[in-house]
Design goal:
The complex is a heterodimer. Chain A has 22 helices and 22 strands. By secondary structure, chain A is of the alpha+beta class. Chain A folds into four domains: about 210 residues, no CATH class; about 180 residues, no CATH class; about 230 residues, no CATH class; about 140 residues, no CATH class. In chain A, strands 1, 2, 3, 4, 5, 6, 7, 8, 9, 10 and 11 form an eleven-stranded mixed beta sheet that branches. Chain A has a six-stranded mixed β-barrel with strand order 13-15-20-17-19-18. In chain A, a hairpin with a 7-residue loop joins strand 4 and strand 5. In chain A, helix 6 packs antiparallel against helix 13. By secondary structure, chain B is an alpha/beta fold. The chains are: A alpha+beta, B alpha/beta. At the A-B interface, helix 1, helix 6 and helix 9 of A face helix 1, helix 2, strand 6 and helix 3 of B. Bound molecules: adenosine-5'-diphosphate and magnesium ion. Adenosine-5'-diphosphate binds next to strand 2 and helix 1 of chain B.
């Protein structure tokens, strides 16, 4: 009991000095970040799970991109107790001079199978429920759409030559879940209202809402897997929310962020650990001189460490709870109705994980503590700094965290490699600078040679300090640089874009109309590139979702049909990244070239066979090369390209994608083009930039929050490096002054010491950031790495100045006390 | 029942990468409770090493060391739980105040009245009014008095002191010396003092002289 109290008193005592505080603050900051991440993620997962129950509108939903063949339709209806068929297509609706791109849902009379629709007479009036969709000849408009088109209930809207009466404002669809986080404008009609001639686009989706007992569901699922390989299935029970993978990817990105933060935290902790260790060794030696076994002492030291960790955890949990509810409140736009919920198990798990990682960092110290001895009180025994052990355990725990949190191995590996480059550079520079300085100074007198002599004496301690500051500088520099370049790239994107109107999808019969309209309105068609919609269904004969389980951006996009382009020449805005590109006019049409990021995410290698569902048939292609985007020559590029000779073998309608340049006067004439061709998808860049600005806003918010965290931890590292070495500096200064050196000289000497430290660290940081830039910019963000030298130099000068200034201030403070300290022994 | 430390024909040496430093050879001595012994000799003779071997902190390179507590042969760890140390550099815990330092051994042993006993001892060494002061607020002599009291407070069988007055002036040394010998006689423990002060050594029951690897009874 008294030992426990003593342990408690000790750890409270340890919090009174700066090392203890910095170490606790670092632990608390890391914990807070991770707990907030975990809680937020748990709340979202919970939201997704309950959401799935309430928002499917059926027991089972089967989604295909082509309508089912009559035989398949009959088979399905034979197995289910109820089936409702809906079809979704992207079209442009016009009303007077207003137009809008909408997701039109055509429903049958059975819709919806479960749940109710909610509608109203105007966007603002009280809502009422409806048990079935619109009648033939009617159309329901989503609230935002009605506002945008300025259409009221009772008015008429033309669609593909048919007049439809607006009969209600659509507020909620029970199968809304299937739309995920889409913010498209929405409208609903009865299936029979659409003329059969309305052309379809490859992005259209047919959905069968299915009701039936559990065994029928299982049978349908088995049948669909076999008969409709390109279909996707969402189940109410044990199913996966479509938003789940989106969220998983967000989490993975944040995972990498936490790895970097943890790395910084580990550096700060390592620095404070040095003093902690010295203190514990002293304490244990005294304990053992008054008859306490070493084992008890170690247990108490560990206990004290654990208590301060618990305190940090308590503090962090409180702060995380606040941050968590603020974040969930902000995420309402993406996850409407999500609630901030508490999951004790998740919090405990996170705290446990961090505890384990921190303990791994603590292992070298524990090993050294077990060698603490009473003998050191009688006779000064040297202590080694165990740099390699600390480095090893530090890297191990960072890699463990990376394994637990990150899925983007390429990015994680590159980050770690850049850190490695910086470490090697700094070790070499520190040793080189200090050794050379020492050799140079051997035959000279003066302060600088002496400064080098002292640095050499403390080479190990010095290199730990340099490495810590350097790593911190590297991460800071790189994060700031990347954020700056990313946002300027995104801002510049809209400007460098060719043309001001994107043709996102045109069908073969649209092309002529487009050209005609363009020449009639002084507009220019800049590019039009052909493609077919193709869904990747298997890799080397294995179904895509069995082949690859690791979530990624690429995998998520491949759940939908993608655009398959054919070309004989490497497009001007692409260059060969690997493999061999085909010769023009090759007979071997079953070749494919893939974008390298997709290759990495999906773990493809050259020679793999990719099978696509295109139209009603399946086609095999052998992966022979990879191409990467390069700027200049237009912005439209494709993930997958095949030889031009392949087109003749593929039975599917061609689509086109491209860009146009419109004069100001032509914009108002667009409505007439759309009235004739409602399925022509055009995206004015004005809208695109608007969407861009929204995305940019979110990205900026996230990155500045993250940069704030990094800055905070960088401050901890700086504070730790000053405080951790203060005792050494104090002793050194006391000694120098007792040998008759003046205050001023002492300060000057220390300034040299800090300047060398800061400069070597800066060199390491720049080297590492340069390596990271070379590797990561190109591969992950498709940007060429052209660092702004002035900016880099400016940032570095700022960092070096800060370090020197803080070191100078700390030294002045230590000079005041050091002589008296020395007298006290 | 005998409580003794027996050193029999021990020898000790350090090998560094360049040379082999031989401190002593074939050396025997016995330390008993109720007796005070002083070890004197020039600096570097190996006094501290001999003390560490006797206290079971180090094993000698040759010979045998046996520890007996109440007639039973025990290992070095058990002996250490029953011994106290006094150092040249005092070695108080800097973050604890005077009474906290004194109470520490008792609290580590789980005694309930640790602070009461510590207050008694503080009065005994004449520092009651400095109870709340931390080591850096005390003079060397005051710190050493607390260190002495700390060594005795848990009633050990043996006390080992390595140059306990090496950092103090003559008058302060005197008072520390009498404090140590008084306490030792009062509690009946065995006290071994390494010192190069003749005045201090003179107060011990036996005096041993260590020089050039030989240990001899001094007059
Ligand atoms: N760990 C060690 N390694 C090498 N030599 C040592 C070590 N410890 C002590 N010595 C040497 O042993 C000799 C005796 O040391 P010590 O016992 O401290 O002598 P004293 O206490 O009599 O001054 C000294 O010359 C010292 O340099
Ligand atoms: Mg000595």
């Amino acid at each position: 009991m008294s030992k426990l109290r003593l342990t408690l008193e000790n750890s409270l005592n340890d919090l009174k000095d700066s090392d203890g505080r910095i170490s606790m603050a670092t632990q608390a900051a890391l914990l807070m970040f991770l707990i907030t991440l975990t809680l937020t993620s748990a709340s979202i997962q919970k939201f997704l799970a309950t959401n799935l129950d309430q928002m499917l509108g059926a027991d089972l939903v089967l989604e295909t991109h082509e309508p089912l063949a009559p035989a398949q339709e009959n088979a399905l209806r034979g197995m289910a107790s109820g089936v409702s068929r809906t079809r979704l297509s992207g079209i442009t609706l016009t009303h007077k001079d207003a137009w809008a791109r909408v997701q039109l849902k055509a429903v049958d009379s059975q819709y919806p199978l479960e749940g109710t629709l909610r509608i109203a007479d105007t966007p603002a009036s009280p809502e009422r429920t409806a048990s079935s969709g619109p009648e033939v000849g009617e159309i329901w408009l989503g609230a935002r759409l009605a506002t945008k088109l300025q259409a009221r209930v009772g008015e008429t809207i033309m669609l593909g030559g048919k007049a439809l009466t607006v009969s209600a404002i659509l507020l909620h669809e029970p199968d809304r879940l299937m739309e995920g986080h889409s913010v498209d404008l929405r409208a609903m009609v009865h299936h029979d209202s659409l003329s059969a001639t309305l052309p379809t686009s490859g992005k259209d989706r047919t959905r069968h809402l299915i009701a039936g007992p559990t065994d029928a569901q299982a049978a349908i699922e088995a049948w669909a897997t076999d008969a409709l390989p390109a279909a996707s299935i969402v189940k109410k029970h044990g199913g996966q929310h479509p938003l789940a993978t989106f969220w998983q990817r967000t989490e993975n990105f944040l995972g990498l962020a936490s790895v970097i933060l943890f790395f910084l935290g580990a550096v700060a902790l390592d620095m404070t650990n040095r003093r902690w260790l010295a203190k514990m060794r002293y304490r244990l030696a005294i304990y053992s001189s008054i008859g306490t076994p070493l084992g008890t002492g170690i247990a108490m030291a560990l206990g004290g460490w654990f208590l301060s960790f618990l305190l940090a955890a308590l503090l962090a949990t409180g702060l995380a709870a606040l941050a968590h509810s603020a974040i969930i409140a902000n995420l309402q736009t993406v996850f409407p109705g999500a609630e901030a919920s508490w999951s004790v198990a998740d919090v405990a798990q996170t705290i446990g994980l961090l505890l384990m990682l921190l303990m791994a960092l603590q292992i070298p110290s524990m090993l050294q503590l077990s060698r603490a001895s009473l003998l050191s009180l009688i006779r000064h025994t040297g202590e080694d700094s165990h740099v390699w052990q600390r480095l090893f355990w530090g890297l191990l725990s960072v890699s463990l965290l990376a394994a637990a949190y990150s899925d983007n191995w390429l990015l994680t590996g590159m980050t770690l490699a850049a850190i490695g480059v910086a470490l090697v550079l700094m070790i070499a520079l520190t040793w080189g600078a200090v050794r050379l300085g020492d050799i140079w100074g051997r035959r000279r007198t003066g302060l600088l040679p002496f400064a080098f002599f002292i640095m050499r004496q403390r080479l190990f301690a010095k290199s730990a300090q340099v490495m810590g500051l350097g790593l911190c500088g590297l991460l800071l520099l790189f994060t700031l640089m990347l954020m700056r370049d990313l946002s300027s790239m995104m801002e510049g994107y809209a400007r460098t874009h060719d043309g001001n109107l994107m043709v996102t999808e045109a069908q073969e019969n649209h092309v002529e109309a487009l050209h005609d309209w363009a020449s009639a309105n002084q507009a220019k068609v800049l590019t039009l590139r052909p493609f077919v919609y193709a869904k990747l269904i298997s890799v080397n004969g294995e179904r895509l979702n069995d082949y690859m389980q690791k979530p990624s951006d690429s995998l998520a996009s491949l759940q939908e049909p993608i655009r398959l382009h054919w070309t004989d020449q490497m497009p001007a805005n692409n260059r060969l990244k690997g493999g061999t590109f085909w010769q023009p006019g090759t007979d071997n049409w079953q070749q494919i070239s893939v974008e390298p990021e997709v290759m990495t995410d999906l773990n493809f290698s050259y020679g793999d066979t990719l099978t696509y569902q295109i139209g009603d048939n399946q086609y095999d292609f052998t992966l022979t090369s990879s191409h990467v985007f390069q700027s200049g020559g237009g912005s439209i590029t494709f993930w997958f390209q095949v030889p031009a000779s392949a087109r003749a073998h593929i039975d599917a309608p061609s689509r086109f994608m491209g860009s146009m340049e419109l004069p100001e006067a032509a914009w108002d004439k667009l409505a007439s083009l759309w009235q004739q061709h409602p399925t022509l998808a055009l995206a004015p860049l004005r809208e695109l930039t608007e969407r861009f600005d929204q995305t940019l806003g979110i990205v900026t918010q996230i990155t500045s929050g993250y940069a704030g965290m990094i800055l905070l931890l960088a401050l901890f590292v700086l504070a730790a490096s000053v405080s951790g070495f203060r005792a050494d500096d104090r002793q050194k200064n006391g000694l120098l002054m007792s040998m008759g050196l003046k205050d001023k000289d002492c300060l000057w000497l220390n300034f040299h010491d800090w300047a060398v430290t800061a400069l070597v660290a800066a060199a390491g940081a720049i080297g590492g950031a340069w390596a990271a830039g070379l590797m990561i910019y190109e591969a992950q963000f498709g940007m060429s790495y052209q660092p702004n030298l002035w900016w880099v130099a400016g940032t570095m000068v700022l960092m070096v100045t800060t370090v020197c200034l803080v070191g100078y201030l700390a030294c002045r403070q230590s000079l005041k006390v050091s002589v008296r300290d020395l007298m006290n022994g | 029942m005998k409580t003794t430390i027996e050193l029999e024909n021990i020898s000790h040496e350090f090998t560094t990468d360049r040379e082999c430093i031989r401190l002593f050879e074939d050396l025997s001595m016995t330390i008993r409770t109720g007796q005070t012994q002083a070890i004197v000799g020039p600096s570097g003779a190996g006094k501290s090493s001999l003390l560490s071997i006797a206290a079971g902190l180090e094993a000698p390179t040759g010979g045998t060391v046996r520890f007996f507590l109440d007639g039973t042969n025990v290992d070095a760890r058990t002996l250490r739980a029953n011994s106290g140390f006094i150092f040249q550099q005092f070695h108080l815990m800097p973050e604890l105040d005077a009474i906290g330092n004194l109470a520490l051994p008792l609290r580590l042993k789980g005694a309930r009245d640790a602070f009461d006993q510590a207050a008694d001892w503080l009065a005994k060494v004449g520092l009651s009014d400095r109870a709340r002061h931390r080591p850096h607020q005390l003079s060397g002599g005051e710190q050493q008095r607390i260190a002495v009291a700390r060594a005795f407070i848990s009633n050990p069988s043996f006390i080992f002191a390595d140059e306990p007055t090496g950092n103090l002036d003559a008058r302060t040394s005197e008072s520390i010396a009498s404090l140590m010998f008084d306490c030792a006689r009062e509690t009946g423990c065995g006290l071994v003092i390494v010192t190069h002060s003749r005045r201090l050594a003179a107060q011990a029951d036996t005096r041993l002289h260590l020089e050039a690897g030989k240990l001899e009874m001094a007059a």
